[in-house]
Amino acid sequence: MKIHEIGEFGLIARLTSGMETGGGVVKGIGDDAAVLDSGEFLLLFTTDAVVEGVHFDRRYITVEDIGYKSMAVNISDIAAMGGKPTYAVVTVGLPDDFDVEDADAMYRGLRQVAANYGVVVVGGDITSAPVLIVNVALLGETAPDGVRYRSGAQPGDIICVTGSLGGSAGGLFLQGNEEFPCPEPLRDLLLKKHRRPEPRVAAGMVLGGLSGVHGLIDISDGLASDINHIALASGVGCHIYKAAVPVEPAAELVARRAGKDPVDWALYGGEDYELLFTVAPGAMGEISAALLACGADCRPVGRVLDGEGVWLVLAEGSLTALTGGYQHFSSAGGKDRGSRP
User: Fold this and answer.
1) Structural domain containing residue 115
2) Is the distance from CB of 134 to CB of 50 less than 8 angstroms?
3) Where are the alpha helices (DSSP H) in 149-248?
4) Which of 142, 173, 195 is the last residue of a domain?
5) Which residues contact 39 (CB under 8 A, 6 or more apart)?
6) Residues 312 and 211 placed together within one structural domain of the fold
7) What is the spatial distance between Cα 31 and Cα 28, in angstroms, rounded to a whole number?
8) How many other β-carbons are positioned within 10 Å of the β-carbon of residue 127?
9) What total number of domains does the chain contain?
10) From residue 225, how far is each of 9, 101, 110, 207, 270 by CA, in Å?
11) CA torsion, points 46, 208, 294, 194, in degrees to nearest 10?
12) What share of the chain is helix, strand, coil (3-state, %, to 5)?
């Protein structure tokens, strides 16, 4: 059997089946970060890699942006658990002909986003590699009652996101279609959303501290994929209302000019790194106000249901199964993010 026959998540399940965990492990495999009991607080531990030809193509993105994004996506995983990022180690694989000045620029981008979010880089490794690879392992922390999981959603919850979606997909489209007519301010905005995402750390910490928040994840693989992660982990069903999906206005304009459905970019594009969370109905006012105070939104997009399955509710009320989103190895998962237009 080949890996593409079972896909990314099937492979993870196979490799981790029966894996033992040691003392102090509050949550092991299966969420955006592992959760470890340090005694005084909970440690969060995550790692993610970006690989040339899979996540990016150096013809379309600067090495400084690559460094920035490699750290930002890991910071977003800590935010998705309600935590504060703290310390990182960075492993870099470099081709033999990689310029020293480019290595400087890559670390400049990496250090910039780390400094923006209070992350200290404390070590790592450098090795030769056939393509550019950047892997970040990141620690975070939260109070014992401040962590939130993707498995916490409850029937009756309102499903919300912290901002607009589809901006990264719009940037990826423009990155590969340089001649596409688009006003420069819109082009710059969408390219920045794709190349330099801003993790929702403040919003994640707010959500982690509110008891009315039940399920929490970041939108890395697309709303369609990540709400399925919540539904599967929580043992619930979900409705997402197509008319309520908040599309980034600039992306909507570009998508319509390109003859594409802008909601598809919001549902399947991924790499927006907004937070997706479920809320007890009675807590919506408190949570909306708390998020507004830290510069984020609380945008309702659906409901959590008894049962199973995730469904997109169309304007006339009909339902269609909401599946898809990015998966490594799977022919159903779409093309590699950022590697090709």
Assistant:
1) 3-142
2) yes
3) 167-176, 184-195, 201-208, 223-234
4) 142
5) none
6) yes
7) 8
8) 9
9) 2
10) 11, 38, 27, 21, 9
11) 30
12) 40, 25, 35
Q: Are 81 and 97 within one domain?
A: yes
Higher pLDDT, 156 or 13: 156
Residue 341 belongs to a domain? no
Long-range contact pairs involving 61-65 (C-beta distance under 8 Å, separation at least 24): 61/175, 61/195, 61/338, 62/105, 62/109, 62/195, 63/102, 63/103, 63/105, 63/106, 63/109, 63/132, 64/105, 64/106, 64/108, 64/109, 65/109, 65/195, 65/196
Query: Identity (one letter) of the amino acid at 39?
Result: G
Q: Provide the pLDDT for residue 140.
A: 98
Residues 69 and 179 in one domain: no
pLDDT in tens, 51-96: 999 999 999 999 999 999 999 999 999 999 999 999 999 999 999 9
- Same domain for 93 and 156, yes or no, is no
Amino acid at 29: I
**The token pair that represents 171 in the structure block:** 């940037």
**Within-domain flag for 329:** yes
Tokens of 305: 């249901």
Model confidence pLDDT, tens digit, residues 31-60: 789 999 988 899 999 999 999 999 999 999
Ranges of H-type helices in the chain: 3-16, 63-79, 100-116, 167-176, 184-195, 201-208, 223-234, 249-257, 262-268, 284-293
133 lies in the same domain as 209: no
- CA-to-CA distance for 113 and 199, rounded, in angstroms? 10
pTM: 0.91
| Contacts of residue 152, Cβ cutoff 8 Å, sequence gap at least 6 | 213, 214, 215, 216, 234, 278
% pLDDT > 70, the chain: 92
What angle in degrees, to the nearest 10, is found between the helix axes of 63-79 and 201-208? 10
Residue with tokens 């409705």, as numbered in its chain: 239
Residue 234 burial (CB count, 10 A): 21
Q: Which two tokens stand for residue 77?
A: 């995983």
In a domain, 340, yes or no: no
